[in-house]
Structures are given as structure tokens and as C-alpha cells.
From TrEMBL, chains A, B, C, D:
Catalytic activity: 5-O-(1-carboxyvinyl)-3-phosphoshikimate = chorismate + phosphate
Listed name of the protein: Chorismate synthase
Gene name of the encoded protein: aroC
Top enzyme category: lyase
One Pfam family this sequence matches: Chorismate_synt
Pathway: Metabolic intermediate biosynthesis; chorismate biosynthesis; chorismate from D-erythrose 4-phosphate and phosphoenolpyruvate: step 7/7
Entry EC no(s): 4.2.3.5
Function: This reaction introduces a second double bond into the aromatic ring system.
Family in the record: Belongs to the chorismate synthase family.
Length: 364, 364, 364, 364
């Protein structure tokens, strides 16, 4: 209830601080009998890991995960899976400066007033480092979704600061540090280099997609599939907007255009983004999120200190100039966690429903 | 867990179908001792009610609410408040046509495949009519928020189809059928008249705002205030996008611009939309949502029937050509429900926290 | 979270006060496609109903239930089932006397101090009348458990005040007003008549049993099947003790005796009461509960008033001299609600588990 | 939802297996600002620890706890507190024998059929070893309850097998290995020595008490304080019965006797055990639980193997001949967890209720 557990049937309870001894999570509700090892999880952790290019924070964290429970002889047992990641490269001295000052655009101020106390080292609990356990849990969810339903998740960057990134091919995504679906990223390299020199930061837009989701997942009236996706994505650090399918463009669309036609051979379009009435249609789930620019920047900012007095803030230390760059694997993980939760919820209530006729294909 | 309960501490369990005998909800967790009568609730229900202009559905529903429990001698007792609204004007014959065909863009198809059975009368459970109990519960929440914290909620339309609506003044909102913050709405009247004649529908964009929210509401890591707002708004029928503060514009903003400066006299800007790190800052909560065009339209559409065969669909009956027109009071109610829930959650965990220094004002 | 919802996947949200306009509940999570009508529910409501013999309260309530939602053409649709029971025979004048005084052994005092306000009419929210919606919801659960698994639930009285009731046969239970498993109940009739004349009340002990529960229901570590049964039963008005299987007798048993032997043909004994490690064994679930004597009695009692001053209390009005007499159908309903919830939880997580070998029979 | 999280506002998510690398828990919802160190927790862990006398298992576990998060500069920050206990003395070879056979009275059989897979080493997830993290979390709860309300918790053994243990004084409890409230425990030492020689085991009865609980904690209708206590206690390994106050004795009591009289100077008796209508009265909370004999014994037992064939089982390895002996600190911890949860729930809904008059004292 204090907001550190994600999900209802497949739950992930996250703990840790950026510069504490360890971070991690406890997964409860994982179906038994699935093969699982650290290697299944490490791959996605490595995609999210800091220090992999000059465009992200240079903090050196191997992010090696240890499975503490819930797996016996290489298989899940149905009991809680505890995942532990020890923090290695905490340089808390870097943060002495901001222990007494609030960074504009940062959670410093709100944590301080909510709790009357905060761990300022590296952002403490509000650090994006806490997305690592989410990625780890998402890897477990992904494996199950793929094995049971053939569901695949992927994400890419579609805008970097002012620069839209055209979609060329998913195949390019793993080949550049931006998760950009284009062959040539020189333009974005240059943009980021200039930004760092300017001691500034920028935002990004990320597209997330799930293919293979069957029709029928999602709950009316409130825990709609798209509502839970919006909750998951807006809860990711720095996200300020979420769209499903046509998103904000649907405002200007006519009903004759927006509604996706159904044919025996499949849907003609996917403006819905794979969700109608809060329930999956069987089409691809399409999500887009807006990530704001990093608030921890080297440029001096006007602010106040913890005594309420005016104070200039300059954030040294190691920070991502665009947190959106590492957001793709995290967004995939969050979507996976939403999907597995609804898969289990569907099975609970409608496990024995035999649809009167077969669903139509995802697309013509 | 089947998604018909909203909230965690102030919970609203919704029930009913568009053309069943009644709709309603049960509120659990309302603090005791607050004066409450049907009149407190009816005002907002009347703002959402159908039939109030030619631009909305002509279904004639008084939407008169009855309090069945939880109030004694005019005051809440702390026990569940059950609210009942009898359906009056069900013309189920209007819907005979679509009982066997799926409307493109509608929940028909997904409900049918999820449950293997669906109530097709008026959209059944997926009808926007089910937002009435939400509005009723929101009215209770609003009253408490106003009494305890002076919090005010309001919403207005900022775009109708292709037409952006400039912001002139909140005072205009109650004076036109569009909840538009402008003095002259002739342009929007004409637009809607043309749309109806074209047997088509359009979307809308709605802005929702809460003032007076104190600093410190919202939970890390997952039940962030903005995450819960996104969940609430995306769960509203036809919503396809949600923004907090600068929203998608923040992608192209630089960090030096986006981060709201703090001064002893208040914040300089509010790009954050009143939320940092998932916790309220004390500034206005600013939300924007995208509503898609109504899927029930008179124009013939390509679709299939429940046997999987090709079928043309024409939706007769009474429908809103722009569901966004009545969305403002619903969006307010949803925001109120999110806020009261977090108010109580804050009180539970941090009820005795005395912030070391007073928060700064909402704005300079 | 305010405690008026029972269950996690099959949830029952209860509302109402003894002398308010109505009581009822909303069931969420009922699987779709099950035939359901008011008649399915009314039978159990009639078993619990007041006024059926001279040994229970003479309040005249038909307890006629109305299904407001969630059923279409005689079948559950998977959406919330709202059940409404209008109160008919409220004689609030009977209670004028106790509006300002606290009955010893009653919830008057605790409600008053918890909420600062209470509805004193007929016990308000704390009245045993609020078990009627539970019985109604339990009837829905029972129907599903019987249809899906052949599970049967039954309960009987095993002690009335000082009088133990020997077990003769389940067949006798419906033939006497005590739910006693004996042919001749004259002794208990006489006992109750004497008690009423003495203006006193007594307790009772109830046995509840479920047959046909498959092996594997119940969650470690906390939501064990027996833990949830204990929660359900102890939450029933006036219950002060709960036992599973051998219960308190197991304290004096040796391990060589208590542990139920397994054979390929079935279990030899059932000291466990059908639960091991919190998970059902496939044997009968056996529960026993202790119900205290009614606190509302005609004999004068020493107490205080709402101003904290000494006051004598005599409870007029219509009360059950032994609330345990009507407890059997309620206890069955609660056990049914626990079981259906765990049935769905099991299906969610372990829905595709194929046990390596067939379970052994319930008993040799 | 898979049952490894305890509580609603102060939640404890437990993980681990008896012979896995580690056990532990994550506490979420702890109020911020409370001084907390490992030493605060270790004391209760040491009371529960194995190997402290010849009457308990000889497994050698230091049970040293590490705080991984949620504490900064010696104070709780309001974020999750992760507690880790590494397993040290796993001798899995001891359990080779029972990997393929089900111990009568043990969870072996039910886990196997529920999940289709189980970790048999030392009972895996069903081991009483998993109560260690509960005790650790309970220590955090106890500290807060003592600091905020002066609440004290204690427990003692009141029956060992067939031997009732008379209550002499709480002061004796820490001075003997049985948590017995008597000065001379020779009789119980002899009893246990004989039992071990007989290769058998026995049950125990434990009394748990909380003093200083204010009036008003507990939720109607379902999450009553006593219901949640029953849930907590019945969920403890080997518990088969729970009583509140007079418990099963209340069946034979008359209403004129059972109902505790109120006077301006305090309650005259406490048959209610500190709970009326599911809400605390301000009197001592009094609970009694029945613990069955250990199922892992050296005497040969009739059973079956995992292929469904007849098999004799002899449980070697290190086991408690009476698990009840170490139950006292665990029962205290569980009661503390229930109380802190209801303390926070009360604060959430009724945080600003000012009772019209002061409550009466706990006792005359």
C-alpha cells in the first residue's frame, strides 16, 4: 500500500536505494515449473546497465543478479523469487553538495517534505537505479509470456530531444546506444555530444510494442489493460505522457477513420493500439511514452536549501544526460509485468471460457 | 481483482449495466463525521447527465441518486456508503441490430471473446453510462478534499476534433455545453452540427486541474501520484492518451528549461504539473487527456458478426457524437478519487511527520 | 481496506445498516457463463432468516433479494453482481433506550470511540443482520463450487450452551430449528425456553464441513487455506474461537497419533481437518467455531452512558437469545467464499500444473 | 496474492527456503523517522533461534540479520526495509530420504500436488525456519508500537502436551527454555526428555497478550481485529486452533456472565479478550493458540512415495520435538504485525476523530 509493490497476481516488491548496500525485488506469484537461471535475467539487466556508452552515466555497476529463493534444480517452484543486486560503485562524496539543496525538477524537495527525512546519496530511493530490479523481474515475466503465448516485447526510441527518429527497422535497435530503429545514428551521437558540452539534458520519446497478446486480457471497469499500462509507464522515472495506439492524434480523427474495421481475415488498422474497452483485441499492443530531460545537470540552477533559503544548485556526479536512452528495456519490462499480471487474472476468472468462435487474426 | 474497484483506502466498487435495472457503487473508507446528503452528489451527476444539449445523447435519465447506507443523521459514519441510481430510459430494442455484430472501435468484440457472453444492450458494462457512479463517488471525495484542504477541482475542453480551444477563463466553462473556457462557442456548435449531419463523430482533449493539493502526496516506487492519475484517466472510456504537466512537449525541452526553479517565494514555473518523483509538489496538478471519437456512429462500417462472418454495421440508437463533451465532470471526479486515496495513504504512513521547514508557495 | 470487502479474486463488498433503507453486497470476480437467478440465492437466505421459530428474533424480514447487475439472460456475465435486500421491519423506537448507553459485550462502545459517531438503531453496522448479504454471496459461490468440483458444504450445531449435541446424522439438520444433527431436539427446546424466561442468553458451537475440495488449494506463507478460514469465521459476529481438524485437542496428541497416515487407497484419519501446510489435502475440510452468548439481553446490566457516567442497561427490542442458532448457514457461506477465492487463486498461478501422479482418495 | 505478503498498510513480504542461500523479508509502509538498527531486531531473532536448548532442533544458525535498505543514518526513511538472513547450516544430505516420500502430517504431499514440484530440503518453503523473517519484521513493529502507544507484547506456554502449565508470573518466562510462566520447569524437562527417547513429538498451547492497545482499532465488517489475529495465528506453522478472550469457554457462558460490565473506572472483566465487534476495547488483547505435534519424527510411519506407492517414512535430520517451544516470540511478532497494520489503518480513516469523551480504563 506504500507503493513499492507492482501487480496484483504476479507481484514485484522492490527495495533499495541508489547508494545503499543492495537493491532488489521479490517476485510473488510466478507459475511453477518454468526453467529459470540468473542468465535469463542478466541479459536484460545488461541492456539497461550504466556505462555502456559515453552517452549514459559512467557509474560502473556490473548489476550482477543473485537468485535467493523460489528456484529449485533450475525450475521455479511457485514460491517467491527474491533477486538481489549488490551496489558496487557508490561514490557518495559526489553528492555531498546536494544533500542540503533541492535540484529543480527532482524528487529531492517532495521526499523531504513527505517523509521529513531523505537519503540524498545518488537520489536515494528516487534514483532511476531502482529500475534495475524492475528489469530483472520483467525478464522473468517475458520468459513466461514467450513460452506460454509466444508474446514478444520490444521498444525503441522515436524522438531524441527535438529530433524525431524515423522508423526504419526493429533490427537496428540493438546495434546502437540509443535503441534507435535506424541504421545511421551519427546525427544523434553529435546531438548528445553537443548537449553534454552545454551541460544540459534532453528528453526522449519511446515506443513499446507487444506482439502475440491474445484477445481478452484486461479488466473492466477500472483495471483496464490500457489503464494499467498507463499506470506502469507514468510510474517510470521522468515519464510525463503516455499514449495507446493513436494517442493524442485520435482527438482530431473522425469516428469513421479511427474505428479499426474488422474482417474475417483480420483487422484493417490498429488505431486502438491493441486495446478496446480496456481489453486486448489480439492486435499488437502499441504504447508511446514521453520522457522529460534529466534534472541533474551541471548548469547552475536557481533553487532553495533545506532551510528554505535561496541557493544555487550545480549537480556534479555521474548522470545520464538523457535518461530516455536507457528507457527502452525498462519500458519493455513494465509492459511485460502488466501483461503477465493480466494473463493470470484472465486465467483466474475466465480460465474455462471457450470463445464461441475463433478470434480473427491481428492484421490483414 | 476483477477490476471494478477503484482506490486502495478510499475504495469505490462500481456495478451495473447500461440497460440493467440499476447502476451504482459502494464507497468504503470515507472518513466519519462529514455532512453528506444526496444533494451534495446530485450537482455533479447533473453536469454529466445525458440530454442536456443537442450535442449529446438524447437518452432521458434523471440520474437521481439514493444513499442506501453509511450516513446517519446527515453525517457519514465511516461505514460503506452505497449509492444507487435506477435506470429509467432503456430502449433495448434500439440495440437489437448490434447484438450480433461488432462495432469497429467498440468493446463488443473484446467482451465477447473474454467472457464468451456479453450484455449487448446499450454497450452493457462497457457503456459510458457507468461513469455516473464514478461521478457520484467523486462528489463525496471532492467535498472532503475541499473541507479538509481547500482543494478545488475543475476541468475544461481544450480541443474539439481538429479545433483547438484557446483558454480564456475558467468562468466560461459552466456557461456552454462544451465545458469550453471561452465566451463564444458558436464555432463549436456549428462544428458539432455538421458532424451529426455527416453521421460521424470526433474526439476531444480535456484539461483537468486540482489546486490546493499539499506537498507530499504520492507513493514511491510504483503508486506514484502521477501513475495513479494516468491509471485513472486512461481507464476512462475512450481515453487514448494522458499527460502530466508539460507532457509530450517535455521531450523537446532542455533540462535547463524544464526543471521548475524553486525560490523562497514559490516555484517559478510548473512544467512538472505538480508532481516530482511521483509526489505532489504543492503546485497545481495539471493533467491533459485525449479522447477518441465515439465508435457508435450512423455511418455504415465494415465488420464481422458473432459467427465470424463479414457484416456491415450501422449503429442506430442514441449516442454522443463526441463523448468528450461530457468528460469534464468525470475527469474531475477521477482526479478527486485519486487525491483522496493518496490523502489517506499519506495520513496512514506519515501522519505524524512534521516537515522541518514550511513548504514554499505553489507559485511566485 | 476499510474492511468491508471479503476475498481477493472473488470479492464481496458488503454495505448497509440494520435499520437503514437497504443492505446488500457487490460480488466481483464471479466466473462468466454460470446460470444464476434470485431463486438460487433465496434458499440460503430463508435458512438464515429471522422469525422462523420462537427461538430466534421475531423481526419480520422477508429478506427478498434482487439481482441488480451481472446477470444477462439468466447467466453470469463476469461483471459485478449487485445484490439488494430492502429492510422492511425496522422498529427504531425499540432502540431509543440504547442510543445513549453501551451494552456490555456489544460493539456499541467500540464503534462510538472509533468513529466518534454511530448508528445505534438495531446495532447499526455491527448487527448480525449484515450476515444476510454474506449468505447471499455464499449461495453464488456454493453453486459454482458444486458445478465445477462437486463440492458440498454443510454445518450443524454441536453444542448449545452447556449442552453438547451428539452427532447422529446430517439428515436431521434441516428438520429442527437448531441445525442439530439429532432426531430429538426436545431437550434443546426446553433449554431455550428456560433461557428466555430467565432473560438470559447462551453460546453455541458449530461444525462446518466441506467435502470434495481437491488437493492443492491454499497459499503459503500467509494466505493459507486454514488461515483464511480462521479469518472468515472469527470475523463472524460473536465468534470467539476457531478450530481446524483436531483443533485444541491436538495439543495433547502425540505426533505418532496426530499425523494422518497416507496409503494408496486414501488417508487413514483426518486430524488435519483437510489442510496441511496451509494447503488442502483432498480430505474433508473440518472447522469448528465457538459463538458467545448474545449481548443484547433483557436482564439489567451495569454499564456507562455516552457521557461516561454509570448507567444500567436493559436491552428491549427483538433479539436472538442464542445467535448461534442461525449461524450454520452463515458459516457455510463463509467457508464457500474462502474456497471459491482459493479455487480462483489456484487457477491463476497453477492453472496448468499437471500433478505427476493422481492424488489419493480422501479416505480409506 | 500468492500469499507471501502479510498486512495491508504495514506489509511484510517473506521469501526463502529452509536450505536455500538466504531467507528474508521486505517491510513496506514503516513510518519514517524511527531509530532502527540490526540490534533492535536481533534480540527477538535470538529468542526464536534454534539450538538454544536440548529441547529444540540442534541446527546451528546464528540468524544474523542485515538491513539492506530503508534506513539512513540510523533512522527509517519511509521506504522499504529489506532484511536478509543468510542460511548457514544446511545439511541437505539429511533429507535425501524424504525427497521421495511424504511425511504424514506434513506439507510434503500438498506442495507436491499443488505445484507439481517442491524443494524437499528441510521442508523447503513450508519449514518453520521461515518464521525468522516474521520475527524480524515483528521486532520493527513492536518498536513502533511501544514508542507511539506504549504497547507491550508477550507470550508464554500454557500447556505442553498433556501437561497444563499454571500461570505464576510473566517474570519467569525468559528464565526457562519453554517460555513457561512458572519458576520450576523440571517437570517439563523430564517430559521432553522422555518424548525424545520415545522418538515422538507433542503439541503445545501458547498465550499471547498485548497491553496498551487503545480503543478503536479494527475494521468492520470483515477485517475485524480478531479476524486478522485469527488469520495471523492460524497461518503460523502447526497451529490448529485460535481463541480470543474466553474462546471456546464462552459457548457455555450465559450472556449475563460473559458481557464485560463497563464502569466509569474501567471494565470489570475481560471475557472479550480486548475486542468487541471486531474493534479493540482498550483492554488487554488476549489470544490463545493450539499447536499440533511436530510431524517430522524418528518413529516409522505408514505413508506413500511420490509415485503413489506404499512407503514407510522415518524422518531423520534435526527437528524440534515440540515446535510450540519456540512459538512464543513468533506469536508475539504476528500479533505486533496485526496491531501496527490496524494502527495505520485507523489513522488513515479516523485520523482526525476526536472521541466525544475519554475512554474508560482497561480495568478496574
Amino acid at each position: 500500500m506504500s507503493g513499492n509493490t507492482f501487480g496484483t497476481l504476479f507481484t514485484v516488491t522492490n527495495f533499495g536505494e541508489s547508494h545503499g548496500p543492495a537493491i532488489g525485488c521479490v517476485i510473488d506469484g510466478c507459475p511453477p515449473g518454468m526453467a529459470l537461471s540468473e542468465a535469463d535475467i542478466q541479459h536484460d539487466l545488461d541492456r539497461r546497465r550504466p556505462g555502456t556508452s559515453r552517452h549514459v552515466t559512467q557509474r560502473n555497476e556490473p548489476d550482477a543478479v543473485e537468485i535467493l529463493s523460489g528456484v529449485y534444480q533450475g525450475k521455479t517452484t511457485g514460491t517467491p523469487i527474491a533477486l538481489l543486486i549488490r551496489n558496487q560503485d557508490q561514490r557518495s562524496k559526489d553528492y555531498g553538495d546536494i544533500a542540503e539543496r533541492f535540484r529543480p525538477g527532482h524528487a529531492d524537495y517532495t521526499y523531504f517534505h513527505k517523509y521529513g527525512i531523505r537519503d540524498p546519496r545518488g537520489g536515494g530511493r528516487s534514483s532511476a537505479r531502482l529500475t534495475a530490479p524492475t528489469v530483472a523481474a520483467g525478464a522473468v515475466a517475458k520468459k513466461w509470456l514467450a513460452a506460454q503465448f509466444g508474446i514478444q516485447l520490444r521498444a525503441c526510441m522515436t524522438q531524441l530531444g527535438e529530433l524525431p527518429i524515423p522508423f526504419e527497422d526493429w533490427a537496428h535497435v540493438p546495434n546502437n546506444p540509443f535503441f534507435a530503429p535506424v541504421a545511421d545514428v551519427q546525427r544523434y551521437e553529435d546531438y548528445m555530444d553537443a548537449l553534454r558540452k552545454a551541460h544540459d539534458s534532453c528528453g526522449a520519446r519511446i515506443r513499446v510494442q507487444a506482439t502475440g497478446v491474445p484477445v481478452g486480457w484486461g479488466e473492466p471497469l477500472f483495471d483496464k489493460l490500457d489503464a494499467d499500462i498507463a499506470y506502469a509507464m507514468m510510474g517510470l522515472n521522468a515519464v510525463k505522457g503516455v499514449e495507446i495506439g493513436a494517442g493524442f492524434d485520435s482527438v482530431a480523427q473522425r469516428g469513421t477513420v479511427h474505428g479499426d474495421s474488422l474482417t474475417p481475415g483480420g483487422f484493417r488498422t490498429n488505431h486502438a493500439g491493441g486495446v478496446l474497452g480496456g481489453i486486448s483485441t489480439g492486435q499488437d499492443i502499441e504504447v508511446s511514452i514521453a520522457i522529460k530531460p534529466t534534472s541533474s545537470i551541471l548548469s547552475p540552477r536557481e533553487s532553495i536549501d533545506i532551510h528554505g533559503q535561496s541557493a544555487e544548485v550545480v549537480t556534479k556526479g555521474r548522470h545520464d544526460p538523457c535518461v530516455g536512452i536507457r528507457a527502452a528495456p525498462i519500458a519493455e519490462a513494465l509492459l511485460a509485468l502488466v501483461l503477465i499480471d493480466h494473463a493470470l487474472r484472465h486465467r483466474a476468472q475466465c480460465g474455462d471460457v471457450v470463445p464461441p468462435v475463433a478470434p480473427i487474426p491481428a492484421a490483414l
